[in-house]
Amino acid sequence: MDIDPSQLPLDGIKRGGGWSVIKGWGRALLSRRGKRLWRTLNHKSACLSCAWGTGGQNGGFRDELGEPLQRCIKSVEAIQSELQPAVPRHVFDRLSLGELQNFDSASCDRLGRLDRPLIHRAGQDFYEPIQWDEVYKRLADAFLASPPERVASYSSGRSSNEAAYLLQLLMRARGSNNLADCSDLCHAPSSVGLTRVFGSGTSNVSLESLRQADGVVLVGSNAPANHPRLMNELIRLRDRGGTVVVINPVVEGGLLKFGSPAFPIRSLLLGSEIASLFLQPIPGSDTAVFLGFQKAWLESGAIAWEFVKSHSDGWEALQEQLMSTSWESITQCCGLSREELEHTAARLASCRAVVFAWAMGITHHSNGTTNVQAIANSAVLSGNVGRPGTGTMPIRGHSNVQGFGSMGVSIRLREPMRLALEALLKRPLSRTPGYHARDLIEAADQGQVDALLCLGGNLYGANPDSNQARRALGQIDTVAYLATKPNQGHFHGLGARQTLVLPVFNRFETPHRTTVESGNNWVRLNEPGTTHLKRANLTSEVGFLAELADRIFGDAPIHWRRLQDPIYVRELIARTVPGYEEMAGIDATKREFEVSGRVFQTPCFATSTGRAQLAPTLLPDLRLPDPDHFGGLADGERGLVLSLITARSHGQHNTVVYQSGDRYRGMPHRKTLLINSEDLQRQGLEAHERVTVQGDAGRLEQIELIPGSIRPGCGLMFFPEANALMLGVSDPACGTPAFKRVPVLVRAPAWPTGV
Ligand code: SF4
């Protein structure tokens, strides 16, 4: 597809940012809750929304380098939602579960804040209030009644490092490694792929380092909607003459032009150019795209051989793969021409320092880990890692999702942390492999899980195959959800005997300090706060987990009640979490810090040899099935098989939908399918016609076709609604489901006779 952004067919797409953002801010700040919103925005705590991690001790609007005006409208949406009043009493008193199950994600969120613990008992058709003491008793009993391998936790990255640390400590003390986490459903391929190559699974680029780059490759990311402040860095990079290569099957308007409020004079009004080159490959073919760049560098003599030979192993096998893989197989796989790949590779080779950044367009594939390795290989072959201005940068979603991994909420516990935890708990940890999020659902579906504690998140909504998720959760005896607001999971993901919905303080309300870690490895300190909810019966997650652990274990092998003190938790974190040594002094110094050992300023990596580990990356087989796979098209029925991408809309954060439509993509509501106009014409389909979309797990009816700037042969629908279509086909390296490149059949009825 076209690589000069000015030549792209822009089927009505809009640029990102701009005055609409200012209007959004204006509306929010002038609203009834505007004053409180403003106070909250200025509270010294990290933004609740994405992992770019604005806020903290520098104040609500500054990043870690002290740059002002670094707060975006997503953050406003998230705070506004938290500032809602409590869920009106009549909702849980009068509405049946059947009625609550009809609420979509946005309606659930708009119910308001949870303000009292609730229980659903088997056989009842409603939630009812319950006392905290009874909650602890029921949960402690549930966690003690079953063998360790039958208890599990799930978590989302909205909570604090301290709560995350306690959660894993509780689970591991219980002898269970079943620490499923939302990162299993998004960036686990980044963690696994980067660890294979560099020995460390996070971004190895700091914000400071990013500002020294003159090239950025942005793959499979819709940063203008999901990480808006990253756009400021891309604008700056273009301003200093740098190159931004965007790779995405969908032309996202904000990746062409973005008007940033941080630069009111030079950017906001007219918008700033973002993409220097735009590639539109076939979804899921990223390994082929990067092999294409590598082959082009090999053939043009642009490989940084001195660097590669000095700082990596395994390059010989990769070189062999590049020589033996034909251009034809690469271009057929990715749908880009050799000229496009060579041209882009040459442009990158002319850059002094390149950062490779990506989001879930790379990871949400059955070969997501391979995609990440292909990117990391490219960084090494081009000498773009291990010095300022270079590196590999997964762009993380939830604000503390990376901190959860650091705290050991993972089925892949790093050896140094294992040893430190064993010393702390004075006994060996279980070696039984734990369940990641997909395995947890599979195990539950087979009746192998008895108790599940969810620290935030929406395990039901975030999983593929919604029917299976509902059924699986329904097999678990006791399910407990700690949450600030209701979500669909609370109404569909009901346990077999009891389900508890437990209200907690959010980050800016928690009555004690907490910390979080950004996607750039920056640890932020959040000051205590208060809640606006009157007479609310909330708990802090740290207090809850320490109390529950005390009820389960008593005071062995550690003094669990003492862990109600977050300062003590931070002491333990400093002692046992690699890279977090500076945490020990943070309460006294209030000095935020970069996790040590993550950002590579020199080409000495975290592998056992200190050298990057390169390996060939296999081209994926991306053939789509024909309509017969779905039962075929009836006589006269119109339709085609598409490679479906599922994505968040603008105005959505993970499974939480704040706004139904997506004005950037021209998709006015949730029941839409973005499709290329050529596909419409070729199949005799009409724009805005209602069709059925059928996948391997189910079908969705009355879906409106929206013509848009998406590669022919592809479609885009919104997550999580489209989860109902797909089976949980996962990346075998880490279990992350393929939410993108999902084969679906679009069906439209035959035209009435005579039309
Ligand atoms: S870019 Fe991310 S961290 Fe920064 S304000 Fe926006 S949502 Fe929050």
Averaging pLDDT over every residue, what do you get?
A: 95
- The number of helical segments is 31
The computed structural class is alpha/beta
**Largest sheet descriptor:** 7 strands, mixed
Strand tally is 28
Strand content: 15-25%
Based on Cα principal axes, name the global outline. Answer: globular
Q: Radius of gyration, Cα only, in angstroms?
A: 25 Å
The oligomeric status of these chains comes to: single chain
Q: How much helix is in the residues?
A: 25-40%
Question: Which ligands does the model contain, each kind named once?
Answer: iron/sulfur cluster
CA-to-CA gap between the ends? 35 Å
**Low-confidence blocks of residues:** none
User: For the largest beta sheet, what order do the strands appear in spatially?
Assistant: 3-2-16-15-14-4-5
Could you explain how this protein is built, in words?
It is a single chain. With 755 residues, the chain is an alpha/beta fold. Helix content is 34%, strand content 16%. It has 31 helices and 28 strands. The chain has a 7-stranded mixed sheet with strand order 3-2-16-15-14-4-5, sandwiched between helices. A 6-stranded mixed β-barrel has the order 21-27-24-26-25-28. Helix 15 packs antiparallel against helix 18 (327-334) and helix 15 (286-300) packs across helix 19. It is globular, with a radius of gyration of 25 Å. The two termini are 35 Å apart. 58% of the residues are buried. The mean pLDDT is 95. Bound molecules: iron/sulfur cluster (SF4). Iron/sulfur cluster binds next to helix 3.
